[in-house]
Specification:
- α4 (52-89) packs antiparallel against α5 (95-123) and α5 crosses α6.
- This protein has helices at 2-8, 35-38, 43-49, 52-89, 95-123, 128-137, 149-155, 185-193.
- The protein has 8 helices and no strands.
- The two termini are 35 Å apart.
- It folds into 2 domains: 1-49, no CATH class; 52-160, no CATH class.
């Protein structure tokens, strides 16, 4: 957690805010490179750094959301089935039957899209909408909903890159720092003091 706090708080003595001297030379406990070095805070690293009670609280909350998502998905599939059953009872090739089948197909398409988005997110796809369009175009989604992510990744590796978060610096002319420039608090204090 101290590596996370170092990115948020400044202490001139190298104190990371919890009373322990640490500073810039300290490495994260898990032996990996700290997230502030790359400029991007990753969920897994952040979540592992939380106390166990906080991790359990998050898992309890997300399990409720996952249950709600599964219930919604099941109700969509039931709705699609009910619409197709109703269409079968209508007069064959009538306008009403065509409309009901059209609605059933629309529900099926939305279910397929939401399932794709969920799986693609877990696979590390950075642009879900574009990946779905490509997967449909290249017929990488089977009739049963199985997605061929291996072929998608081989054909379009750029869809699996990490999103680049732009630096917040506005550049010259605004008094803001330039992109890529490191902030040195000591230099800023000396500049303001006229040294």
């Amino acid at each position: 957690m101290s590596s996370f706090l170092e990115g948020l708080y400044f202490s001139p003595e190298g104190d990371d805010g919890d009373g322990k001297a640490g500073g810039e030379g300290e490495k994260p406990a898990d032996g990996q490179q700290g997230d502030q070095d790359s400029g991007v805070l990753e969920w897994d690293t952040f979540h592992k750094a939380l106390p166990e009670e906080a991790q359990k609280l998050i898992e309890t909350h997300t399990s409720g959301l996952n249950t709600a998502l599964k219930t919604e998905r099941d109700s969509r599939k039931d709705l699609e089935k009910d619409l197709k059953d109703a269409a079968g009872k209508l007069e064959k090739d009538s306008d009403a039957q065509k409309e009901v089948l059209k609605l059933a197909d629309k529900v099926a398409a939305e279910t397929e899209k939401s399932d794709f988005y969920e799986e693609a997110h877990e696979e590390g796809v950075s642009n879900l909408k574009l990946a779905y369009v490509v997967a449909k175009q290249d017929e990488l989604i089977s009739k049963r909903g199985k997605i061929d992510f291996k072929t998608l990744k081989e054909s379009y590796p750029e869809l699996f890159g990490k999103k680049k978060v732009p630096d917040g610096g506005a550049g010259e002319g605004t008094g803001s720092r330039r992109p890529g420039e490191k902030v040195d608090m000591n230099k800023l204090i000396r500049k303001k003091a006229g040294r």
